[in-house]
Write a structure and sequence with these properties.
Layout (H helix, E strand, L loop, with lengths): L2 H21 L7 H17 L24 E3 L8 E3 L2 H14 L5 E7 L2 E8 L2 E7 L6 E3 L2 H4 L15 E9 L2 H13 L8 H9 L4 H7 L2 E11 L6 H10 L9 E3 L2 H14 L7 E8 L2 H7 L9 E5 L4 E13 L5 E12 L2 E7 L3 H7 L6 E7 L3 E7 L24 E3 L6 E3 L5 H12 L11 H9 L16 H7 L5 H14 L4 H7 L7 H10 L3 H5 L3 H4 L7 H12 L1 H12 L20 E5 L7 H10 L3 E3 L8 E4 L5 H9 L2 E3 L1 H7 L2
Parallel strand pairs: 2-11, 19-20, 19-21, 21-22
Antiparallel strand pairs: 1-6, 3-9, 3-10, 4-5, 4-7, 7-8, 10-11, 12-13, 12-15, 13-14, 15-16, 17-18
Catalytic activity: NAD(+) + (deoxyribonucleotide)n-3'-hydroxyl + 5'-phospho-(deoxyribonucleotide)m = (deoxyribonucleotide)n+m + AMP + beta-nicotinamide D-nucleotide
Family: Belongs to the NAD-dependent DNA ligase family. LigA subfamily.
GO molecular function, one term: metal ion binding
Length: 664
């Protein structure tokens, strides 16, 4: 790959992850991984300035500014980002350069809070507008109503200056974050990955009551603009803000030399884990405001400040045990249980060990001191074993040769690292099979939670997936025993089960749990067959004629239907009235017959699911990848590598409006 191709590739990757971070509050990678990609892009563009484009991530500040139901506000003062540095040498180079260029400068070293940036505007001492960073240059989202319910936001100043605009970081304390996730778990809702995501999502809520309940906080770190009063230094401004009751960044330190700055950075790094909130680095600023004016800004960052970013957080802890669990296919998964540690804002005590090969490669043993980190600042993973701290007499761990649930033998599958329980009637497999069957991606039976599944299996009401539809026979028993709750809850679940009988056949196929046959594959298969019964009597050759189905998936289907027990379950499902047939899908025309579309990016008017249904209902096919066989690429905002590939292959790219017009 040449440099130009690599630049384009990195741009697309960064655009994708920028959207996940800024607009969806749901990052997939760590800040460190993102920063390293950005550094690589900067280096490549430095070598090839002719390849720098206006839409490059290096030429913009933040994400886009979007909020359903919200209002966009124009920035009076740009909310720029900071130049990031990662090494001691870079800190020294910056500080010494400032000392050379300025007359005896003073530096202010502050915490870099890991949150969401927001500015507050006051007119005649009254808070009028609160706005997020948005794109950092032109506009951000109006979050005034939500800002007013944040306890740290001052609504009226003591000194009624004509105009004040201040910028701060909205964050969530670790205590508040833990409390919210406890509530989310109790309510059966998705828990938040880290405090930063939770704070960002909370500030963007359309209901300010939710914002108030979640208890987010705010630190102010800069005066953007002020009229009616003047300050000579940044810290002088801080002191005035404090008198107004405004909470500014804690424990900031003034320094004169690079050695002093680095000493403060090290001190903050050591105390990082003891703070009540997350910080991801340290900011070094010029204190004198006239010096700041003299230095000015680039199009993206101020020249009077830099941010030193800490490396990814990792901690040592003691491995207490290795537990093994059995999945719905019988696969046995080992999980490390260790003394709880706090990483990236959450308390963690477990990490998946994947398989025996992973354990052997790490040479991990119970009692070892291990190093744990978070992949993408979300998923706990074990990095290494501190072998010099290993206790004498420790033994290698081996996944047991018998299933921990049913006692049946376990075997290692040929040419894989997977060890499986060979008993198809193992209760653990049944449990996960039923959870898969009733889940959202399969039969989507609302309210059928895993706790109900486990209890109904334990009491032998459910022994296979067909038994789900026999539960109405035991309504009185279920109500009397309170397994699902009283009459109202029980009837609600039974109604949902009854309603699911009319689901599309592809949902049933997904729910059967055939290896390698997920939602997408099931959809392709049921376009080719009239019913599940037809599928039972197919051949490998016919299956391989189905788009997206190869030999391995085909063999999995044949093996499933060769099992008489599975055929019996299918027969019982049919007797209970579960839909087996594909409905006659007719459309007014077949305008897209023979055409293959790829949908990528964020669609703002019709949505990706609706676009897919629209294309398929008119005879078209929607694929997940771009190839020479692709007819059109439907591209929304922040379209990534698929758009680039389409352009390279000369495939026509269309918008949502053009798609709709094609059908008129």
């Amino acid at each position: 790959m040449n440099d130009e191709d690599r630049i384009n590739e990195i741009k697309n990757i960064i655009n994708y992850h920028s959207d996940r971070y800024y607009n969806q509050d749901n990052p997939e990678i760590s800040d460190y991984e993102y920063d390293q990609m950005m550094l690589e892009l900067k280096e490549l563009e430095k070598e090839h300035p002719e390849l720098i484009t206006l839409d490059s991530p290096t030429q913009r500040v933040g994400g886009s500014a979007k909020r359903k139901g919200g209002v966009l506000v124009k920035h009076n003062v740009p909310m720029l980002s900071l130049q990031d540095v990662f090494a001691k040498e870079e800190v020294y180079a910056y500080v010494n350069k400032m000392i050379e260029e300025l007359d005896d400068p003073t530096f202010v070293v502050e915490f870099k809070i890991d949150g969401l940036s927001m500015s507050l505007r006051y007119v005649d001492g009254n808070l009028t507008v609160a706005v997020t960073r948005g794109d950092g240059i032109i506009q951000g989202e109006d979050v005034t109503e939500n800002a007013k319910v944040i306890k740290d936001v001052v609504k009226k100043l003591k000194d009624k200056v004509p105009y004040l605009e201040i910028r701060g970081e909205v964050y969530m304390s670790n205590a508040s974050f833990d409390k919210i996730n406890e509530q989310q778990e109790l309510l059966g809702k998705k828990i938040f990955a880290n405090p930063r995501n939770c704070a960002a999502g909370t500030l963007r809520q359309l209901d300010s009551k939710i914002t108030k309940e979640r208890g987010i906080s705010l630190f102010i770190f800069n005066i953007q603009d002020i009229k009616g009063i003047e300050f000579k230094t940044h810290t002088e401004g801080y002191e005035w803000l404090k008198k107004q009751g405004i909470k500014v960044i804690e424990n900031y330190v003034k320094c004169k030399t690079a050695d002093e700055v680095w000493s403060v950075i090290q001190d903050i790094g050591e105390k990082r884990g003891t703070l009540a909130y997350d910080i991801d680095g340290v900011v070094i600023k010029i204190d004198n405001l006239e010096d700041r004016k003299e230095l000015g800004n680039t199009s993206k960052v101020p020249k009077w400040a830099i941010a030193y970013k800490f490396p990814p957080e990792e901690k040592e802890t003691k491995l207490l045990d290795i537990e093994v669990s059995v999945g719905r296919t019988g696969r046995i998964t080992p999980t490390a249980i260790f003394e709880p540690i706090r990483l990236c804002g959450t308390s963690v005590s477990r990490a998946i060990l994947h398989n025996q090969d992973f354990i052997d490669d790490l040479d991990i043993r119970i009692g070892d001191i291990i190093v744990v980190y978070k992949s993408g600042e979300i998923i706990p993973k074990i990095k290494s074993v501190v072998k010099e701290k290993r206790i004498e007499g420790s033994k290698e761990f081996k996944i047991p040769e018998i299933c921990p649930v049913c006692g049946a033998p376990t075997v290692r599958e040929k040419d894989t690292a997977d060890i499986k329980c060979i008993n198809p009637n193992c209760l653990a497999q049944l449990e996960r099979r039923i959870i898969n069957f009733v889940g959202r991606t399969a039969m989507d039976i609302k309210g059928f939670g895993s706790a109900y599944v486990k209890e109904l299996i334990r009491l032998k009401y459910i022994k296979d997936i067909a038994d789900v539809y026999s539960l109405f026979n035991y309504r009185e028993e279920l109500v009397d025993q309170g397994i699902i709750g009283k009459e109202k809850n029980t009837d609600k679940l039974l109604d949902a089960i009854e309603k699911s009988k009319g689901n599309e056949a592809q949902m049933l196929l997904t729910g059967l749990g055939i290896p390698n046959i997920g939602k997408v594959a099931a959809k392709s298969i049921m376009k080719h067959y009239k019913s599940i019964e037809d599928l039972q009597n197919t051949s490998l050759e016919e299956l391989q004629d189905v788009s997206d189905i190869g030999e391995i998936s085909g063999l999995c289907i044949l093996k499933f239907f060769e099992d008489n027990k599975n055929r019996e379950v299918i027969s019982r499902l049919k007797d209970y009235g579960v839909n087996m047939a594909v409905g006659d899908v007719t459309s007014e025309d077949n305008k897209f017959d023979g055409l293959t579309f790829v949908v990528t990016g964020t669609l703002t008017t019709i949505g990706r699911n609706e676009a897919t249904e629209m294309i398929e209902s008119h005879g078209g096919k929607v694929s997940g990848s771009v190839s020479k066989k692709t007819s059109y690429v439907l591209a929304g905002e922040n379209a990534g590598s698929k758009l680039t590939k389409a352009q390279e292959l000369g495939i026509e790219v269309i918008s949502e409006e053009e798609l709709v017009n094609m059908l008129k």
